[in-house]
Structures are given as structure tokens and as C-alpha cells.
Predict the structure.
Amino acid sequence: MIPFCPVPNRAKILIPNLMNSRFWSQVVRDLTPYVPGEQPKIAHLIKLNTNEHPSPPSPRVLAAIRAELGDDGAPLRLYPDPDASLLKAAIARRYSVTPQQVFVGNGSDEVLAHAFMALLKHEQPILFPDITYSFYPVYCGLYGIAHRAVPLAADFAINPDDYCHTPHGQPGGIILANPNAPTGRLLPLAAIERIAAANPDAVVVIDEAYIDFAGEGSHSAIPLTARHDNLLVVHTLSKSRALAGLRVGYAIGHADLITALDRVKNSFNSYPLDRLAIVAATAAIEDQAYFQAACQQVIASRQRLTARLTALGFEVLPSAANFIFARHPKRDAGQLAAALRQRNIIVRHFKQARIEQYLRITIGSEADCQTLAGALQDILGN
Ligand SMILES: *Cc1c(COP(=O)(O)O)cnc(C)c1O
């Protein structure tokens, strides 16, 4: 049975909240905030825990920031363009849509938050997989949105039938990460189209944070937005464009969906993107050649690392992302993560049912991958 999670998320409130103040609103008392991967302030650490890109961004990004700053930084006196029109135009050109079909925000986390508020908050509970990006239930808690966690299949695949013609009727909305996180598994476009068609009165959000690492062929659902006015596709510049530090994400969909996001954005923060972010993100989107080479480099490293870990006895899920999700049948994942940490390598370990024996390992530089594989070989030998 699909567990039903009413509003607010009572399951989490069983943990006594020791940090508390009489000044806190009831909303704050009830929150279960997202816990991001660690950003340690230690030098010489091999950081494979938050799926950042191993290479710097396009050199054009740096040139654009320098040009915007000028000699004396005077442009920073002025507010940025609240519509980030320059960036929207570049994204629209890149994906053959109109600027009215593009929304931009301060990282895709902000774009997703606005989508939850603007498009997914309805009477019916929304649907997403039991194992997926752990920010989704956090937004549900923040905005008071009920959800059903739909179990992934035993092989961690999403079964599209679970999202089509469910016995509960059309859901309030659906959100899927594709490729899914932290599994890295890719759902074919035909399945996404089927889900969108089966739920014409619900918005289906596809979070494509990792889609650029899916490799050969076109896997993005963006072209489907032309046929399905209920489909919203969300991208980030944090992973494939190597700009996690810049905080830029965007969404593409029918202009009516974009208007809804704009209404929330303009009720929250008129200037989510600063002047440097607008010009830098535009430069990154326009440098297609650099981008494709950088993605290819990660995909090639992923293939080599997968082969190497498989040879060490790991079971590695097929990944379409810039990370792999792997378990060793004879070794506890928490202990492996701790042993790596002692060797100054950090990977992500989720203490969550079904996946507590897995490690999520970001594809770093070729040297990082070599060091990681060597360390694991060493640890397993002991
Ligand atoms: C990293 C990630 C995001 C957030 O990206 P930002 O643009 O850095 O906020 C969104 N969704 C998924 C699935 C991610 O892994």
C-alpha cells in the first residue's frame, strides 16, 4: 500500500524538538528542514558528496563577470533586471521555446519551491517516489501539502503505472527527478509522456538536475512541454554547468505555468538573480561546446569508475547522472563511508530505509576517481 502522509508531516514530529524557543511560530516548530551534504572547510579533501562538477565552468563565465563588474564595480549600485531577460532569452534560444515559457530562479531549489507553492498545492495529495530528492517532503511540510510516497520497484526503477489512473483519482500533482536521485536511474521519455497524458488536470514536474549526463540521444522532457500544458521541466546550472556556487536554476513549460511561478516569485523576492549571476549564467548557457565536452568527460569517468568498483565486488546501479549509487554485498555502507572519511574522502551515505547499505559517490576528476577506487581497494583488503 502507498503510505499517505497527511499535513503536516507528523511522522517526523515524534522526535522531540529540543531546540525550541517561545518566539517560534507554530510553522517553524513543525518544520523538518532539509539537511544539505556537508561543505567542510578542510583543505585537500576529496569531496564526492554533493555532485558538484570536477572542472571549472566555461571561461566565458569569468569573462562575463569581469565585464559586468567593469573597472570599479559601479553596476553593483543598481538593482538587477527583475525578469533576467538576457538569461531567459538565452535559455529560450537554446531550447527552441519562447521567453514566456522560461522561469529563472536562485538555484533550482528555489524554482522547485515556487512550483510546490504555485502548482502542486491543491486539495488532493501529490505523488513522488519513496526514494527521491529529499527536499520534496520538506517543501510539502513548509507549504502544508499532503503527499503519497510511491515505492520504487525492487530494482529502484519508477513504475509509470503507479502514476497513471491511480485508485485515488488524479493526484494534486506529481514530481519526479529524472534521472532520479540518489539512484541515478533514468525513466524513458515515453513513460513521462504517458504520465503527463494520464493526468491532464494535474501538473507533472520533472526535475532534470542530472539530465545532461544521460549521454547519447535526447532524454530531456522539454520538447514534450509543447504537447502537454501540464508538464514543467526544471533544470539547474549547479551540476552539468559547474556553477553550484552561482545559484541559478530554471523551468520550462506552458506560459500559464510560468505565470504562476512569476506570481509567487513576485510575492517573495523580486530579484532572485543578482547582476553577476544573470550575465554568468547567460555565458554558460551560450557556451555549448565547452558544456558538451565537460559532460562527456564526466560520463567517461563514470564508466571507468563503475567498471573499477564492479571489479572490487560492488553492485553499481546503472547511472545516467554525475554520481553512482553502489553497495558492497559484504561491507556495511556506513563503515565504508567512515573509512573513506578517515582517508579524507567524503561520499554521501543516507541513513534511510531501503538505501542504508548504499553509497552515493559523485564522479570527481579522473585523479579523484583513481584515489577513491584505490582507497576502497585498500579498505576492502583489510
Ligand atoms: C542538486 C539538485 C537540485 C538543486 O540544485 P540547485 O540548482 O543547486 O538548487 C535539485 N534537484 C535535484 C534532484 C538535485 O540533485
Remarks:
- The domain at 59-286 is CATH 3.40.640.10 (Aspartate Aminotransferase; domain 2).
- Residues 8-16 have pLDDT under 50 and may be disordered.
- The longest helix spans residues 288-311.
- The chain has two domains: 46-56+296-381, 59-286.
